[in-house]
Amino acid sequence: MTPRKILIADDDRDLVNVLAIRSRELGLAVMTAHDARTALNMIAEFRPDVACLDVAMPAGNGLSVCEMLANDEQFISLPVIILTGNTDEETVRRCHLLRAYYVPKCADLWSRLEPLLIEFLGLSAAGSPLAMTSPKP
């Protein structure tokens, strides 16, 4: 079975590395970008199963990328998680309007991100896809 793919885009390279390690522990194939333009190009080329985007990045921002994806039929169903230190109402409102999941950057970021990845990608907590089994008679 092909592993699920995640794109993590943030200009904070240390954060990207930590999230990449944790995502690999879930069994995900990880792609990374450090600016908005690269993130958008990677989404178009590699078709990840989920994208985690920072708001404030060089060459654009994650909300703009999310807006472009929401207006493109090919990517309208791509789950997008916005990771940001911005807590202002406008950022939160834009996330909701774009059907993106708002996750504030904080000390327990992974504990907020991991359940979303498990849900979106149909993973068990151990990282493998949930088995589709029928109940026994």
Regarding quaternary structure, how should these chains be classified? Answer: single chain
Helix and strand run: EHEHEEEHEHEH
Helix content: 40-55%
Choose one word for the global shape: globular
Helix count from the secondary structure assignment: 5
Description:
With 137 residues, the chain is an alpha/beta fold. It is 40% helix and 20% strand. It has helices spanning 13-25, 36-46, 62-70, 89-97, 109-121; strands at residues 5-9, 29-33, 50-54, 56-57, 60-61, 80-84, 101-104. The chain has a 5-stranded parallel sheet with strand order 2-1-3-6-7, sandwiched between helices. A two-stranded antiparallel sheet has the order 4-5. Helix 2 (36-46) runs parallel beside helix 3. The radius of gyration is 15 Å and the shape is globular. The protein starts with a strand and ends in a 16-residue tail after the last helix.
Which terms summarize this structure?
137 residues; alpha/beta; two-stranded antiparallel sheet; globular
Task: Write a brief structural summary.
With 137 residues, this protein is of the alpha/beta class.
Task: List the topology elements.
Elements: E1 5-9, H1 13-25, E2 29-33, H2 36-46, E3 50-54, E4 56-57, E5 60-61, H3 62-70, E6 80-84, H4 89-97, E7 101-104, H5 109-121
Helix pairs in contact: 2-3
